[in-house]
Design goal:
By secondary structure, this protein is an all-alpha fold. 80% of the residues lie in helices and 0% in strands.
């Protein structure tokens, strides 16, 4: 695997840490800026919304740029807004930096995915995707807990400074490792043709399935803390261990999926989705048993991110003539699930359905994903495919 692909994973690690680290910093931000916890929580929502909206917009704006220039631009903006966020005493400015950071992160993600696939070659698509997505899983295991520790020791601003500092060596490595110049695909299609390619029924259904799978993942993950403390019976000190266990499983899942999905993509997606559905239901049923809960948290982390990696690879396979925009829509679908899942889990908790309810919601979302996959299997492979692609001159 080219070194540059691992550099992309490092940059995604820094940005993934920023996306999820606020869960451990909300109280400090609320107290320092004199806002409510709910207002502080909106900083996370603003980032998710920025990712969903920003992915296609930034990809469309930068699709003709040389990839190294685009990556460095988006990463540079990301670093700058974190410096501003670390310095500001205004909640409104901090909120604006979260949106701007999300837009830059979304643009980076879209370009990073297509760059990794181009560098790795068609025979290693899934492995390259796994390395990039693996940056997020490492962020869950290392970056987010580290951000919480920094916030506890030196305040929430130190976590913002840390994200900015970690991004700097990634930018230097990108400058050295990623080839300069424009992409070598001279047959690059127009923006209109790329967008038209994304209207294919099989691709749209795949994106819907991806959003449902990610919604299930983040619904349960967001409410693991009350589940393991109120149902399983673990003390608060076990919460970081359980979250890290999920992250370890996630890293193992993307690594294994990267090796299998290049040769057996259908089997990885199909078996992974079926196992995820059964696993969330099993966790909801056995959450009161500590050993079963720990084993299932590990397995579900592996299955969730392994299946997600295979689905991202599948998106690129279905839209070879729209590489940049396909990556942006995959990023958007991922974040639609990341935003909708916790919201649905919160609704279930708010209705008084108990602390197992978010996990049952995850199982229901996976049932919908399986139904979507069934519809997808019935759609002809040529549905919506243009007869003659028109390249850009």
């Amino acid at each position: 695997m080219p070194f540059a692909v691992y550099v992309l994973g490092l940059a995604v690690f820094a940005q993934g840490t920023s996306e999820f680290m606020l869960s451990g910093l909300l109280s400090g931000i609320a107290g320092d800026l004199d806002v409510s916890l709910g207002a502080a929580g909106l900083l996370t929502s603003a980032f998710a919304v920025g990712m969903v909206v920003g992915a296609p917009l930034t990809a469309l704006a930068g699709r003709t740029w040389p990839r190294r220039r685009a990556l460095l631009f988006f990463l540079g903006v990301f670093v700058a807004v974190h410096v501003v966020g670390a310095l500001t005493s205004s909640y409104a400015v901090l909120l604006a930096t979260r949106v701007a950071g999300a837009l830059a992160n979304a643009g980076f993600w879209a370009v990073a995915l297509v760059t990794a696939l181009a560098l790795a070659g068609p025979e290693r698509r899934a492995r390259a995707t796994a390395v990039v997505v693996g940056g997020v899983t490492v962020a869950c295991v290392v970056g987010v807990p580290a951000g919480a520790v920094l916030g506890e020791l030196w305040g929430w601003r130190s976590a913002f400074w840390a994200v900015a500092l970690v991004s700097v060596p990634a930018a230097v490595a990108l400058l050295v490792a990623v080839p300069g110049g424009r992409p070598d695909d001279a047959r690059r299609v127009s923006a209109r043709s790329e967008l038209a390619a994304l209207a294919r029924p099989r691709l749209l259904l795949t994106l819907l399935v991806m959003a449902l799978v990610q919604g299930a993942t983040f619904c349960a993950f967001s409410y693991l803390e009350p589940l393991v403390t109120r149902v399983t019976g673990f003390g608060a000190g076990w919460v970081p261990v359980v979250l890290a266990l999920f992250g370890v499983g996630s890293f193992a899942g993307v690594t294994l999926a990267g090796r299998l999905a290049d040769t057996r993509p259908g089997a990885v997606v199909g078996c992974g989705m079926a196992a995820l559905t059964a696993g969330w239901a099993a966790l909801a049923l056995t959450a009161a048993h500590p050993v079963a809960a720990l084993v299932l948290v590990l397995l579900q982390g592996a299955l969730a991110f392994g299946t997600g990696t295979a689905l991202i690879t599948r998106v690129f396979q279905l839209a070879p003539d729209a590489p940049t925009m396909a990556g942006s829509f995959a990023t958007a679908a991922f974040n639609v699930g990341a935003a909708a899942g916790p919201w649905l889990g919160g609704l279930a908790l708010g209705e008084g359905l108990g602390f197992r309810a978010p996990v049952w919601v995850s199982a229901l979302l996976m049932c919908l994903a399986l139904a979507g996959a069934g519809v997808l299997a019935a759609v002809p492979a040529t549905a919506g495919t243009p007869r003659v692609p028109v390249p850009e001159r």
